[in-house]
Amino acid sequence: MSVPAAGGEKRGSLSQGLEALLSGHILEGRLRGGEKLPTESALMREHRVSRAVVREAMSRLQAAGMVETRHGIGTFVRGSALSLGAFIDPATIGIITDSLAIMEFRIGLEVEAAGLAAQRRTPDQLGELRALLDQLGQAAISVNDRAALDFQFHLNIVRATGHHYIVNTLLNLGEVIIPRSRLDSARLFHDEPLHYEQRMQSEHEQIYQAIFNQDVECARCYAPSSS
């Protein structure tokens, strides 16, 4: 079964369709925990979609905690994707649901913001982003400080757009957009804290490099970070 490829559909609709298809396969058990997903190229061929569509769908699945990407190896179904209820404190379910809703909102906002930032960033703004990344890469940082730096990193990206409506939207949301400010994200998805932080740092590096290179398409692909 492939994603409908009507010519008038936007990339967002196609990525949502691919996400729904793959998440359905996971929930039905057709893709099991620990199983490797097809490569980007294979998914592009099978579903007749672009690389950007595949990457957006993967980012959505990552944000939902259903898959994880192991750099240089591939993307795998998380073993816990079908049994979250077995280890989540009921008191946190509302926060988790809200955090996922925020992630969906962020995807729409930050995809376009990253693309604009890649086009419009100044050397000074690049320097500020690099400095924040270097701070985030330090090991001896508290969870609260890391969340604050994470928010500042995303805020600096949207400031590089020069678009005051986008900036004001992010400022109004504040650190609530950073899941780690409300949840122990690493423990929630059975990830080692160090591995989780390394993955987040790698994703931030990819966004930065795309903006540095003024690669609009890559910046948009990497923007929906799960941090």
List the topology elements.
Layout: H1 11-27, H2 40-47, H3 51-63, E1 67-70, E2 74-77, H4 93-120, H5 123-136, H6 143-159, H7 164-173, H8 185-188, H9 193-212, H10 216-222
Antiparallel strand pairs: 1-2
Notes on the protein architecture:
The protein has 227 residues and is mainly α. It has 2 domains: 11-77, Winged helix-like DNA-binding domain superfamily/Winged helix DNA-binding domain (Arc Repressor Mutant, subunit A), CATH 1.10.10; 85-222, Four Helix Bundle (Hemerythrin (Met), subunit A) (Up-down Bundle). Helix content is 61%, strand content 4%. The protein has 10 helices and 2 strands, in the order αααββααααααα. The chain has helices spanning 11-27, 40-47, 51-63, 93-120, 123-136, 143-159, 164-173, 185-188, 193-212, 216-222; strands spanning 67-70, 74-77. A two-stranded antiparallel ribbon has the order 1-2. α4 (93-120) crosses α6 and α4 packs antiparallel against α10 (216-222). The radius of gyration is 17 Å and the shape is globular. The two termini are 32 Å apart. Mean pLDDT is 76; it is low at 4-9, 80-93 and 181-191.
